Amino acid sequence: MAACTRNIAKVLTGCHRHLLIPCGQSLTSISQTASRHLPTRNFAAAAKPAKKEKKDEKTTVEKRERIIDNTNRHKPYGYTAWSPTDDVYITKFYPKPVYDPGTAVDMLKSFQRIDLTSPKQPVYIDLKLDMKLEKKKKVDPFVSTVHLPHPFKTEMNKVLVFTEDPDQAKLAVENGAAFAGGEELIPKILDEEIVADFYLSVPGFINKLNPLKNKLRKKFPKSKRGLVGVDILKMLQLFKTGHEYLVERDCYVVTKIATLDMPKEHILSNLQTVIEDVCTHRPASFGPFIQKAIISSATSEALEFQFHPPAVEEDAV
Q1: Banded pLDDT at 16 (limits 50, 70, 90)
Q2: Which residues, in sequence order, are CB contacts of 167 under 8 Å at separation 6+?
């Protein structure tokens, strides 16, 4: 009996060990895997949204700073800024300033004194015109003559008057015409024996001037330019001392307006007279006719100035 009980006890102890060891291993393995994976999953899920919130805060701060720096004015395309902050700077990095006409004339006079150039050099203006009209129509290039309030030419223009009336021819010569006559002047003009700056004609003589069209070209008498009319004395008064300008390269007017030794007030008066005459060649209802205006002398740099267009009457609009 004692031997049987010993064998049963050994068997029971062996079975107990066999059952308890796997259970312990499985519990420990479950607890190890749980401790390894759970913390890493929680940490990874919490880290990503935290980074996104930081980025959003940075972008909002940057946007607010840009709005403050711009001060409601966009940066000019191709330039560093609208105006320099230092006294010495590279001009190509900033847009050219636009001056008042009086300031521009003072600068031209100062350039002449600094460069020690001739004070009698001519003053030029360069106007860029907007030739557009309604739809696809455009203003035709024109030639115009204007009487400057302060002429800068020392010699009067040579004016020729075509008329068959001997009394009108005599009156024209007495009032400053260089030549006056009828058909006898045509062959002399073709042979270049007679050359004039302006050719005037009475309306009844225009049909007899056809042989001179190819010779005179732009100087051929036309009523649009005021070269054909009955009042010979009025035409002579304008064209003897008148200043002629024309549109070049489709939309540019480049002409002299004065000399640099003239008083500032005289230069500005001639400038305004030319601008007012240019603006009469297109209706004011289409907007500003002059897009850009530049003034310069023969030896100075070009200065863009802010022109003053003529006042438009309400009836004209």
Answers
A1: low
A2: none
